[in-house]
Structure formats: structure tokens, C-alpha cells
Amino acid sequence: MNLEELQKTFGADTVTFRKGPGEFTTVIIDNGAAEAEICLHGAHLMKFVPAGAVPVLWMSKSSWFEPNRPIRGGVPICWPYFGAAADPALPAHGFARLSEWNLAEIDSSEKGMTRVALTLSPADVTAVPVPFPFELRMEFVIGKVLQMTLTMKNCSDSEQIITDALHTYFNVKSAGAITISGLDGVSYEDRVVGAKVFGGVQDGDIRIDREVDRVYLDTADAVEIHDPGYDRTILVEKFGSESTVVWNPWIRKSQAMPDFGDDEYHTMVCIEAVNAAKDRRILAPGATHVISQKITLK
Ligand SMILES: O=P(O)(O)OC[C@H]1O[C@@H](O)[C@H](O)[C@@H](O)[C@@H]1O
């Protein structure tokens, strides 16, 4: 659909459409409680700003906005696998973030609350061969609080093993000054070394003073980012996920990534709701799994 047709079908006072960076179509929401922008490429939330607040999500100024490439920042959807593919010819974090999603529904009937649903099916995937039939549905609730829910269905007649993530990039004033609570006493895999190795048990709050790439295991708990620079705490709750990833690439890795500014690691941290490692999900034929994340400013 072109912009005019989208506006006619889904538009409202609080919902408009534009051609954003890379000529990707985006949905713009401004409902009094918050402003948001969702790109159909990847069903990618690029902006969430509750009224009067500093942007909650971080976006790289060096991001690609190209077909079959991921957007750097916001909320990439990693699916049907998290991290590197078993086959090195396939893209990291799966094809969901590389694909053009369909707008399925927008409900703006409630004041200060906008619900947006997007879907993806095998016919929409051009980046890679589709490994099995599936249905994905991504729902955003944009209000004072942000809720994001990914529903995945295995439409094949065999069992499928899925790993996935809502790979949320948070905007912080200075990564070196934040503390992250909620994972004290939780064991983690350390992925900085490249391989999956047991990293230890978290002792107290997390501070970022080097590259951090950890999969915290067996945890469904909420995490809080305490940001003294912006004088706020971001509460990150999740459901359908028993592993949490904390990621900051720090200096060397930032410089090595072409779609990530050399100094941008200072202003971001990822707290990801994940199904990975021992929390991978085995979906029987016809089965569904739901993973979600809820973001509240305190
Ligand atoms: O560069 P990508 O594919 O978007 O991945 C970014 C990061 O995503 C994180 O989730 C991984 O734990 C990191 O290892 C990875 O570097």
C-alpha cells in the first residue's frame, strides 16, 4: 500500500505515515501520552518518547537503512535464531529484522494509547531461504508505558527449535555512569570471548566499564537501568523469557562495526528479553510461543 492508502485504511488523528530513512515506510504515533515511530522494515520500533521525557530508545547515527540489512538501534526482532547462525552464510540474529512486515491492525480508540500489530509470513522473506512455515505477529502498545509482544507460530509438521530476542537499545546519558540492577546472583554466559563460556555469577549491580556481552540464565526478573545523567530509572519487565542479555560493545567493537559510530557506545546499553542458550524453545507442530517486554519510566 502507498502512504495514501495506508492513511485511509489505518490512519487516525494520532497515526500518520511517512517515507522514513532509506525510503522505508514508517508509522508515526503521537497520541498525547507518547510519540513513537515503527518501521515496516523489521517491524522495527525506532522511537519511543513518553510526553516530556528524553527519548527512551537509542538509535545509531550510522545505521543502515537498506533492504536485507538490519537497523542499528531501537528494537530489532531477532528470530528464528539469536546470535550467529549455525550456517555461517546466514545472517546473524535471523531474518525477521531484515524483512518487510505487513501492517495488520491499528487501534487508536482509547485516549493516550495506540495498538499497532504487524505480521510476517514466509512469502514476505526475501533475504534468505525460509527454513520452515511460520507466522509471526508483533504488537506494540504505545502509551505512557510501552508494551511489545511477539507471537510466533510453528506452521510446519515437525518440531522447530527457536531462539529469539527483543533486542532493545536504551538511550542513556553516559553508559559508564549507569547501574543496572535485577540480576544480582544470576549466572551468566560471557560472549565477549567469542565462544559461549561460563562467565560467573553476577555480584551486585552491573556497571559498564568495558565490553559487556552476557546472557544471564534462568531469569524472568525485571531489570532496572538507573541513569543519574538523565535523572531517571527505566524499568524493563518481560514475559515468556528466561534469559536476559546485557550488551555494550565498548571501544574496539564499536570501531569494528561499520553501522555503529565509534563513540556511540557511551550513550547506549541493550537489555534484551531473550530465549537463548538453555532457554531455547522447542515448538511442536502448530504450537505458539509469546515473548514480550514492557518498558516504564520511573
Ligand atoms: O551486530 P548485531 O548482529 O546486530 O549484533 C549485536 C549484538 O547483539 C547482542 O545481542 C549479542 O549478544 C552480541 O554478541 C552482538 O554483537
Supply database-style keywords:
298 residues, mainly beta, Beta-galactosidase, Chain A, domain 5, eight-stranded antiparallel β-sheet, 2 helices, globular, binds 6-O-phosphono-beta-D-glucopyranose
Write the layout of secondary structure elements.
Layout: H1 3-10, E1 15-19, E2 25-30, E3 34-39, E4 44-50, E5 77-78, E6 102-107, E7 114-120, E8 134-142, E9 146-154, E10 160-162, E11 164-166, E12 169-171, E13 179-181, E14 187-190, E15 197-201, E16 212-216, E17 223-227, E18 232-239, E19 243-248, H2 250-256, E20 268-275, E21 281-283, E22 288-297
Antiparallel strand pairs: 1-2, 2-3, 3-4, 5-11, 6-7, 7-8, 8-9, 9-22, 10-21, 11-20, 12-20, 13-17, 14-15, 14-16, 16-19, 17-18, 18-22, 19-20
GO molecular function: carbohydrate binding; glucose-6-phosphate 1-epimerase activity
Pfam families: Aldose_epim
Keywords: Isomerase
Give your account of this protein's structure:
It catalyses: alpha-D-glucose 6-phosphate = beta-D-glucose 6-phosphate. Belongs to the glucose-6-phosphate 1-epimerase family. InterPro entries: Aldose_1/G6P_1-epimerase, G6P_1-epimerase, Gal_mutarotase_sf_dom, GH-type_carb-bd. Pfam families: Aldose_epim. GO terms for molecular function: carbohydrate binding; glucose-6-phosphate 1-epimerase activity. The structure is a single chain. With 298 residues, this protein is mainly β. The chain has one domain: Beta-galactosidase, Chain A, domain 5 (Distorted Sandwich), CATH 2.70.98. The chain has 2 helices and 22 strands. The protein has helices at residues 3-10, 250-256; strands spanning 15-19, 25-30, 34-39, 44-50, 77-78, 102-107, 114-120, 134-142, 146-154, 160-162, 164-166, 169-171, 179-181, 187-190, 197-201, 212-216, 223-227, 232-239, 243-248, 268-275, 281-283, 288-297. The strands form 4 sheets. Strands 5, 11, 12, 14, 15, 16, 19 and 20 form an 8-stranded antiparallel beta sheet that branches. It has an 8-stranded antiparallel beta sheet with strand order 6-7-8-9-22-18-17-13, with no helix packed on it. A hairpin with a 3-residue loop joins strand 2 and strand 3 (34-39). It is globular and about 55 Å long. The N and C termini lie far apart (39 Å). The relative contact order is 0.16. The mean pLDDT is 97. The protein binds 6-O-phosphono-beta-D-glucopyranose (BG6).
